[in-house]
Amino acid sequence: MGGVAGMRGRQTVRGMFQSLAVIMVAAGVMYLFIPHDEDANPVQAKDYRVELLTAQRAAPYPVLAPEGLGEGWKATVVSYKREQSDAWQLGFLDPDTQYVAVHQSTAEPKHYIPDVTQQAKNSGKTQTVAGQVWQRWEGPKYDALVSTDGGATTVVTGTASFERLAEMAGALRSQKA
After folding, report:
1. Cα–Cα dist 86/58, whole Å
2. Tally of CB atoms within 10 A around 106
3. Do the beta carbons of residue 84 and residue 111 sit within 8 Å?
């Protein structure tokens, strides 16, 4: 009697493995037939015009956004926080998929700049972009170009090279609403 029960137990286990194998094969086949576009960039570019208009109306300084950046720049982050010293943030992925962000605020520069640049320090060097002088800040994670004109601190920062940061800084324009 005992032998029959043992056989039935083994058959149940074998049946489970067979079912599992069938399921795995089916899943594999489904995976093969679902299109996988490896080159498709999953990051969707954000349309930030509404936020930009809102910020330009609300902020006590000229809010900046880039115009005429070349191909391959994608806006990914946008926010305006009136309650946080009118902080404007516009983040992009550059054509090399490095991060470049524009930050503006009326906050105290000595706290604000290290905060948005992930602890970058003023290198003491300057860089002139489109006739405007920017301070060069260098950091372990982000470098930055910093300007304190127009009633706000403007910081162009990110993982990108100074060349890309300058490209962004040079494209910045304000349309005060």
Report:
1. 8
2. 16
3. no
Pairing, β 153-158 against β 143-147:
antiparallel
Q: Which helix (H) or strand (E) holds 107?
A: none
Tokens linked to 62: 């000229």
- Kindly report, residue by residue over 46-102, the tens digit of the pLDDT: 899 999 999 999 999 999 999 999 889 999 999 999 999 999 999 999 999 999 999
Question: Phi first, then psi: what are they for 33, rounded to 5°?
Answer: -90, -10
Dump pLDDT digits (tens) for 105-115. 999 999 999 99
| Structural contact between residues 171 and 67, judged by C-beta atoms closer than 8 angstroms | yes
66 contact partners, CB below 8 Å, separation of at least 6: 73, 90, 92, 102, 168, 171, 172, 173
Q: Distances from the Cα of 70 to the Cαs of 94, 131, 165, 173, in angstroms?
A: 9, 20, 13, 15
